[in-house]
Amino acid sequence: MTVTIMDIARASGKSYPTVSRAMNDHPRISEKTKREIRAVAARLGYRPSFAGTALKKGRTSTFSIIVPDLADPYYAKFISCFKQTAQEKEFDVVVYDYERRSDLERKYLERMMSGCCDGAVAFITSFLHTRDLVEGLWNARIPLTAIGTPHEFAGNAKYDWGSIDADSSILKILRHLKRQGKRCLVYLQEPQPKEISMLLSKHLEELLNKAGLPFSSGSFFTLHSKGQNQAEEGFNAGVKLLKDMPEVDMIWARNGFQAYGLLLAAHQCGRKVPEDLAVIINDNTWISRYSVTPLYCLDQQLDELAGWTFRCLHDRSTAREWGEPRRFLITAKAVIPAMSAPAETAAAVP
User: Fold this and answer.
1) Which of 299, 278, 286 is nearest to 257 (CA)?
2) Phi (first) and psi of residue 45, to 5 degrees
3) What are the pLDDT digits (tens) for 67-108?
4) pLDDT of residue 343
5) Which residues contact 176 (CB under 8 A, 6 or more apart)?
6) How far is CA 77 from CA 67, 71, 99, 174, in A?
7) CA–CA separation, 137 vs 144, rounded Å?
8) Exposed, middle or buried: residue 159 (CB in 10 Å: 0-12, 13-18, 19+)?
9) Phi and psi of 258, rounded to 5°?
10) pTM summary value
């Protein structure tokens, strides 16, 4: 049986308004009365209604995080940093993992319309299939901050957006590797809609041109064969690439798990890392930091990214005026293995 405020009032001999105010820490109720009423509530097994509390306050004090792969150390690190900031402000965090499935991605974005939280940060795969939901959230005044998604396909949709400026850092790495004698890079990408693939291809071509390295149709390798985990995907891609394209001496992977698979593939194919093959990854989490084999990394400053994202959501959810969409960029740092870098450029390079 659910214990109500009225039950506590009867058991404590206090009025309903007094009990209600005491349970909500009202300043007009003395600390002695609050302790007495809370003791009765605890003895009866009272549990406050989340929905009722949210209705009274006009907010839930909860933010949601929607990620494509909770097992990915990049997203796990972001969530950890975001939660730390949220806890300081007494906010709860709910995480949804859409497992890189577009149907689940839409489902979790639609759930935000129900008022289950005060706002959400979402690593959206593509606005090609979510733009209507993004527009709906903005029109409903539900804060949404999209992270990293190319907004070229967002049309006129309004939303808050944050991303990583990694171009200068990846250029540092590519130019460093060119000086080391490397010439042929392949980028591992997830299956993407044609429009997104063309955008990524153009961007990679521009980066390689700036670094003075060649670009071709072989510069992209799409991970069509899905393994049991990301390490297996990296291994399968590495074996195929190194056998079919022996000239490859740089592979750009998404994260440390894929990189570990690549390292095993390189070992089986008789390639030494980083002497014969350089492995570049998009993050710098504990996976890369504790790798025995040197890896080239883009440190995406996830603590700073998470902090900016929380403040963006918090300000939006508590502001009286809705305001225009916000944009922010966090500058990544290049992490070059000490054994392959001059002393003054070893480790993280802004």
Assistant:
1) 286
2) 80, 35
3) 999 888 899 999 999 999 999 988 999 999 999 888 999 999
4) 36
5) 336, 340, 341, 345
6) 12, 10, 17, 26
7) 7
8) buried
9) -60, -40
10) 0.79
Contact 78/282 with Cβ under 8 angstroms? no
The residue type found at 48 is P
Tokens of 36: 């007495």
Residue 341 carries which side chain, given as an amino acid letter?
A: A
